[in-house]
Amino acid sequence: MPQKLAIKTSSKTVKAAKLKKKAQSFKIASESVTKVAFKKKSGDKRITISSNGKVRLQKGLPKKTYKIKVKATAKDDGLYKSVSKTKTIKIILK
Asked: What is the helix (H) or strand (E) element at residue 66, kind and residue range?
């Protein structure tokens, strides 16, 4: 049975003043029946993504708009088939 996967986060605004003091992070919102694993496909090397969807912005990142391409994969659980989607997320540093 095919399952639906939705990556709900499309953009995020972060204040550069906070990023000067320490690294900042946020979680990518997604919706699926089974567990979702994330992987960064492209983007700035100072922005990392964990497999659970936590995006980490390195301390001291300059002000500008960054785009990262993220691949989300919903796992196969026997009842639902595995499905993958790729989405570009815009990160704005103000």
From this structure: strand 65-74
The torsion defined by the Cα of 45, 18, 49 and 63, in degrees rounded to 10, comes to -40
Q: Mean pLDDT score of the chain, rounded to an integer?
A: 94
Pairing of strands 11-14, 83-93: parallel
Q: Are 51 and 37 in contact (CB under 8 A)?
A: yes
pLDDT(78) > 90? no
31 beta partners: 6
Q: Taking the model in full, what pTM does it have?
A: 0.88
On the question of pLDDT at 6 being above 90, the answer is: yes
Is the CA virtual torsion 49, 54, 58, 61 positive or negative?
Answer: positive
C-alpha 8/C-alpha 31 separation (Å) is: 7
